[in-house]
Amino acid sequence: MEHEVYVPFPVETVRQALTEPERVARCIPGCQLDADADPGTPGGRLRLRIGSSTITYRGTLTVTARGADTVTVEAGGIESRGDGSAELSLTVRLAARPDDSAATALHCAGTVTSTGRLAEAAPQTAESAARRLLDRFAANLAADLADEPPQDRPAETQPAPPAHATPGVFDSEVPPPSLDPLADADDQDGTAPAEAAHARRTMIGRSAEEVDHAPPRGRYAPVPAPQSTTTSATLRWAAPAAALALASAVVVGRVLRRRR
Q1: Are 9 and 137 part of one and the same domain?
Q2: Which site among 4, 92, 142, 254 is 20 to 30 Å from 239 CA-CA?
Q3: Number of domains within the chain
């Protein structure tokens, strides 16, 4: 079977819309998608009217782009009530409408393989139902595009070039601690290396606990507080003077008593 329909939108817009399987499925008249349908391979129910009968199928649909102007639609389902099945293979070629470049002509060519109730229908009846289905699909697609135009696909971005490696925090040189005997080994006065060597010599043979609790030596030893000498010197001279004064007082007292 072959049939042609028209959609009042440019070719590129229609082509992009036809590559969205979920949009194609919801534009098919009588199709009801499942709530958890996969957007890439939508599934659901399709109520198809053939003559005076209505057949309900459960199935899935896939869409594949074939170049810039061709799309193929594959669908298959089984009867909800019965043992029949149907499979559709449809090729859609897109072209600008000759009398209107802003509209698109869809040339549809497809085949249907069926068993059950659809296979029992007269060929003319089945073909008339297919043409009517495509006409209504084109009208639904036009209305859907007016409500929800297809989004432009983002251009593929190239990966950013790797940035120059910068040293991490663990790659940075760690300065020696301020209490390290070798911290001032580069002092210009030359005293630090000698003190560092002395510190190493004095720490050899001593346990870590002794070193930790030992008072610092060398340049890090605490400066002793200055001692006052004035008070001690005064006390040293005051005691003999007091004794001498007392002895003098005793001698003078004895002399005075003898004179009396």
Answers
A1: yes
A2: 254
A3: 2
